Fold each of these.
Amino acid sequence: MVTPFLEDGALLVSYLSVTEAFLLQNTIEATLYLLESEGPADRGSSRPAGGLEEPPSIADHLTAALAERDGARRPADPALIRMFPDACADQAVAAEFRAMTQPELRRTKADRLDRMLVSLNGGNQVDQKLTTGPVAFEVSAGEAQGFAAAMTDMRLVIAEHLGVSADSDVEAVYERVQAVVEASTQDEAYEVMWLDAERLAFVVLANLQGNLIEALWDLPHGALN
């Protein structure tokens, strides 16, 4: 079970079971893939290993421009539309707003997810069968609000996949997860997880996000600066 976040020096730390950490890791990676499938994916440097950064060519500039253009379009995937909703009903105005904000917003969202992967299990890959728990999820105060926003993004994606659009749908997800957990032994957890992986991930994210927000409220004034 996800534990409350506790202060450990400059960090807020929560501990997850291996199954919870594995679900979180997979959800982060899946959301990153979704973000990069319809927009600019290059968030790194073009600097080659051991050498100086190569000056961009005309082709590089053209590729970057096309990526920016594609990243500003209205997403085709309904899950991405939940993450990047129309700013208003007027499609022309909404499109103009997207062109100004969406590429940078995509990068911000992707960068947060990248940082979450680094903060989970010390940046090491979580393996359902090889990793021993509990698994630490360490968050700096400065990154906490961004991580909470990233958890909202992931829950929006899962909600779209599950058809969750009302409070009653959320309640149904929780009831299903509770039934699965109560009917499973610890030895069965790995197999059962795959039957309701997205529902389980939805609940894990909700618990983790709630605990993180509660921890933020308990921080002394100015700690987030």
Note: Helices lie at 18-37, 58-71, 78-83, 91-119, 141-162, 167-182, 189-195, 197-218.
Amino acid sequence: MAKVEHNACLRENGGRGSRVRRGGAGDGSTRKTTQIPEEEEHDEEGTGVARRASTVVADARRRPGRRGGDPLLVLAYMLVYVEIAWLILLVVRAARLVIDGWGIPSADSPKDGDAIAAATTPVMDAFAKAVGGYTELEASSLAVGLPEGLMGNSEVGHLNIGAGRVVWQDVVRIDQSVRKDEFAQNPVVHETLTAAKNGTGRLHLCGLVSHGGVHSKQEHLYALLRAAKAVGVPHVYVHFFGDGRDTDPKSGAAYLKELLATMQEIGTGEIATLVGRYYAMDRDKRWDRTELALKGMVLGEGEASEDPLKTVEERYQKGENDEFLKPIVVGGQERRIQDNDNVFFFNYRSDRARQIVQLLGDVDRSPKPDFPYPKNITLVTMTQYKLGYPFRIAFQPQHMGNVLAEWLGKQGVPQVHVAETEKYAHVTFFFNGGVEKAFPLETRDESQDLVPSNKSVATYDLAPEMSAAGVAAQVAKRVNEDDDQDDHHHKFPFVMCNLAPPDMVGHTGVYDAAVVGCTATDKAIGTIYEACKQAGYVLFVTADHGNAEEMKFPDGKPKTSHTTNKVPLIMANAPRGWRLRRDVPGVLGDVAPTVLAAMGLPQPEEMTGQSLLEKE
């Protein structure tokens, strides 16, 4: 059977197609797919599958019985032959480029702070003017699963882009349960409080107390206090971790004052320990810091205080701030974490809570084996701090089934992801839905596709081009790479990549450097675009969040943070008659469905985003 080359299909797809390794509906329908065993794939002549099909048909004809074989059996095998031939199909090749920190300025964005507008960007300028190839997406707040009004970030952006749905962050899920008065009915929360009531009568609530919203929320602590009151836990002790990093360095006194008033209003709760996050939330394996916090929480070692608010204010006068508070111990031994107690950690962000629960919860005490840990405590965490930890979890992680990378593998589409060091985790771990390992047919060759970031500079304003040119060159190489077994077909029908300068240089606050970085980024996009045209790929360009378009506050001071502005979605080198919809509000979670529609592949039901692609 000769190699399939459907000219009509090629015209529709805007270029040569790529064979996939398993069947998929070329028209975007939800037709069930059939797996082709490895031994039945095409050989160089395109006859491997056909030869097997011809063999089974010939075998049917040789079967004894009716003259010429059993017609029904021959027909059945011929249908198999046709189905297998259908699996030798062509899909549209696609490249997806995420520009980190490339937003669209709002009406309120200071014009003299727009580093993108000041840069030389002929490629992106032309894309923005292309009829049908440009639309805008929401990349912050509830549109990406964050609390209302909160700016997006690289991790959340890539999660949504790769998942093809709004990925609700843990904080939003907890917020919603509190808002709907469902928090106290959470089975793990309720059972923990009941166990504390029926056990030692002591419940310890541990976590960061501030309105920073990065690691925890005071509203969640208040919800725990109200639930404990409703259950009737006799003694509730709060171990207060000072912030001062995501908040003003000396704002902890106000947060403590608010907490004391709320506990009085609810009618339960007492302060047991105050200690800065520098000690209680270390994540750099500085175990002496973690031990210092535990000495206060477990042994009562620290500055004794009957008035913690006054003590904190006195510490301020001595030059100490919230982050670096050494233990302040309130009350006697009854407020310490003791044998058989119940302990609830209410931080929802995991990374800075791992060390202290590792020791206290007896996961691995080898860093501090001689500490007199309390025995037989029950430790519970708000969210999953690490896979494999034995603790009960109040809010289990979301199931992220059939993200784009996984789904492409199931459809038999080989893929590769390219980025420089600073963003490689984003195009792999985060883009893949928080999964560390590669999915089937996903190539990870870090010797090629992880382009080294410039480590010779302390900050990227000193080298604002970063490694954008290197990333572009590697993407160009990958899109032009032929299949090892068939040089008429491309090795990677899907290529994912990231360009970092607008975000990483934007974070430095150095406007002129960001202009240079954006210029270099546009040049890199041009390199990728030319390669896509040459190889017949449809190029999709978007951003994970804004940054470089708004580098100044209205008062002229440098702005280094992300923005809540929209981001572009661009489709380039697409067939005639294709266009991106602008009549519906798009979000980052719509990008994956749009790419699947362009490639002619079905959209899994787990992807609740909508395709923004229209084909005439």
Note: The radius of gyration is 29 Å.
Amino acid sequence: MKNHIQTMADHWLRPLICLLIVMSTQVHGSHLIDITLLKSAVSKGAVCLDGSPPAYYFQKGSGDGANNWLVYLEGGGWCASHDGCEQRTRTIVGSSSLRKGATFFGQIMSSDQTINPDFYNWNIVSVVYCDGSSYMGDVEGAILSGGSAGGLGANLHCDGFGALLPSASRVKCISDSGFFIHAVRDIQTPYFFLESAFDDHQTLREVANSKSTGIFIHSCYRHGHFYDKESWANSPVLGDKTIVKAIGDWYFERSSVQEIDTQNELPQNCTNHA
């Protein structure tokens, strides 16, 4: 009887596991992306807080996106003391050795054209954030982007990133919930600011002096969009544009995008906003 129950359990469990794997793949709209460890960088002093090598996840582009790049700098806050940094060495924001060997790319990094219509076939790099300090070829188009602490990293390195790609026809930067007024005033490279109005958006008016500057400031109570499926799929709409449409129109210069929600003075719950 016991063997019969075990056989029946195996009979149902294995198909269920396979089904869950298929469903997971369909939900993410992408395949697993393996981590790459830069072991050669250790000898040069480029290491995570625990001494492990820097790392990134890379998805190769294809078709008309094969020569375009989107580089995403992960966020994760900062450490400002020896004890604080030491504590981070036991977490994924202080050690690449604690990272998953593979991950899914979603939202602006998804290879699913229905989710990410403008950048789905680009070369995508997600740089592992593990130093606690905002990250102190033949390319046609490139984007340097980052969220939160990574957004500050994108601010600080935007012009330097552009200088590394002098032959690229279009180089731009995106800050996802990582706006710092003193870090962006002198940026020359076209920049897109994606923020909640409750991440101190008022200061953005000081930098909205060029059509090359993209702005999408909504009133949803959110911090971060690119790694949050809910924020990406249920995007607020400003000027008839969702977040994905606004970024695509700005990058490809289909139209200027400087949208700020001035209708709502209080934060909105946009969880179920379609």
Note: The beta strands are 32-37, 55-59, 68-73, 102-104, 123-127, 141-147, 170-176, 191-196, 214-218, 258-260.
